Amino acid sequence: MSNYASTKSRVAAVSVLASASMAAAKFAVGIAIGSLALISEALHSSIDLVATIITWFVVRVSDRPADDVHHYGHGKIESLSALGVIALLYVLAGGILVEATSRLREGAPAPVFSWLAFGVLGVDILVNTWRAWALHRTAVATKSQALAADALHFASDVLGSFAVIAGLSLSALGFAWGDAAAAIGVAVMISILGLRLGRSTIQTLLDRAPEGVSDKARDVISAVPGVVGIERLRTRMVGPTHFIDALVEVPRTYPIDRIDEIKRRADDALKLAFEDADLTFTAIPVARDNETVRERIMVIARNSGLAVHHVTVHDLGCKITVSIDLEVDGNMPLVEAHDIAHELERHIRDDFGTDVEVDTHIEPLEPEMPHGYEAAPERVEEIRAALIGFASNGAIHDIHSVRVRDTEAGEIVNFHCYAEPTLSVIAVHDHVDEIERHMRRAFPSVKRVISHAEPPNAD
Predict the structure, then answer these.
(1) Which of 42, 22, 21, 20 is nearest to 30 (CA)?
(2) Residue-wise pLDDT tens digits, 30-87
(3) Which end of the chain is more exposed for a tag (fewer CB within 10 A), N or C?
(4) Are the C-beta atoms of residues 286 and 270 closer than 8 Å to each other?
(5) Closest to 30 in 3D by CA, of 156, 131, 167, 152
(6) Which residues pair with 285 in a beta bridge?
(7) Model pTM?
(8) Please, are residues 355 and 300 in contact by the beta-carbon 8 Å criterion?
């Protein structure tokens, strides 16, 4: 059992004992002196006793976790129990009004004066004031409607006890109608307080969005990096839990793992904001205003499950030209590969318009993990010496971390080098590209050269 559930259960259990004791005392004294107002308060306390027992049971059930049948947990049982108790209170209020008006009409005798009645009512006021405060504090902390209903009952008991004291005082002063008038006052207070609680309980059962929660949740989610916008957000309360359903716009160029990270951060932020939040996050990929043509083409290819690279885009003024390297299974017949390329080109034209010019270069897909092994040290040294020689122009220098691997397709060469920090990326790439071309001419067995250029003293 959670700490909240334990606290709610303990407070409710203490209230059961207090309600039983005070109801019995008021009922006994009310019968003894013939006070309808005191008997009404005793009956009111008896209803509170029944309500408290129900509450004690309900709070133990409402904190059970969600299961296969109750996907949103069991929190709404608190709202149902609160409605049931409110119905009992209105039945009681109606009965009191009927009896009180009957006594007023028939001129029933005033109750017998007794200091014991005032003593019982004084103790009742002290006990119920403490219980109403303790229950209200716990209800706010745990967001429990059942405990809030119980706290309201005890607050009405306090007001009712003051009304009974006023009625008994009037009766003692010779105003025989004082006791019946006090009983009517008790019934009216029960009705007003029940109406107030019933309104909030019904709103919860009708899934009315809690006040201010939607705006706060929207602000929290919008502040998460990567969120472009929120198309729709819905909130509701089930017990103490805020259930938040959000359709969140994210860049369509983001990979799935990054979108999942956005969802996790939004969930964590909402839990910090509301303590007990349950987020349903639906990502809607959208195109951002600053999305490039290349990014749009990569999205089109990814949505088609295709691997592309070397996407080149040129704006000729009157039209856009696109060149793409498309990787397909090397054993695939050309007719099938051509159909795949044609379909990709059609998707691109659907997105950019029929005027776009698309050329697709089909090449075999590299195996994900090709077999290979490290080349002999002598071969590595030979390649390293050649690289140093090809880098003699000075723009690229300090060739290091040379690795050579033999694969079924040929040799793969990796190396690191230093370049002047002030050189542009284009200039560095051109110089490295020149070294790679020399390598391929000098060593036909080399299939691929992979270089990593960095400024000197780089971390």
Answers:
(1) 42
(2) 787 877 777 777 776 777 677 667 666 666 666 666 666 665 555 666 666 777 777 7
(3) C
(4) no
(5) 167
(6) 250
(7) 0.49
(8) no
